[in-house]
Structure formats: C-alpha cells, structure tokens
Amino acid sequence: MKGEGGYARVASAAEVPEGGALAVEAGGIAVALFKVGGRIYAIEDRCAHQFAPLSRGRLCGAIVECALHGWRFHVRTGRPPAGEFPRVRAFPVRVEGGAVYVAIGGSSSIDSIK
Ligand code: FES
Asked: pLDDT tens digits for 19-32?
C-alpha cells in the first residue's frame, strides 16, 4: 500500500537484523532491506549480474557481496564500490513509529549519493 509521498510500509524496523538483511516487496519490486549502524537502507533485491537475491548475500560493513559470484554493491547507493559493475537501484527509506517505509518511485533522488 502506498502512503504519503509514494512511501509504502514494508516491514517493522525490528524485523531487520543489525548487520543483516530482510527481503520484502514494494510496488511489485523485490527489495532488500539492510541495517547498518542502526540505519536501514533499501536496494533492489536482484543482482545486476544474474539476478540472484542480494538479501542472501554477505554483508561486510555497508557493502553486500552477492552469494552467487561475488559482485559487490553499496547498500546505501546500489553502486559497486569501485564502479566496476552496473549498479542496482537504491530506494529512499523512512522509519516512523517503528515501521519501515520505502519509496520505490524515488530512486532517482539519491543518485547523487556516493
Ligand atoms: S548473480 Fe550476483 S554476482 Fe552473479
């Protein structure tokens, strides 16, 4: 369900483990939520290589490494650390009242974040 500003509630914040991931869906898109340093980030749960779910990857700091062939993506931006691969989409996240909201239509607003 879409809320204010195109944000959709996808989970409770407590469901996302610190240093781990939770696979959810928003607007028909598979989304991987990651919690790093108490903050929650959202990227498309579909590796840019052969589409494995990144929520099953290994999280090292703010970088997730795909479980299949090791491509790596920053969970905040969806970009590979050294620009060596195509990126995955990253989505704005809001946490309010213990709930996590993701804006699927808002990925372009964080394109400039490194
Ligand atoms: S499917 Fe992710 S690195 Fe190959």
From this structure: 999 999 998 999 99
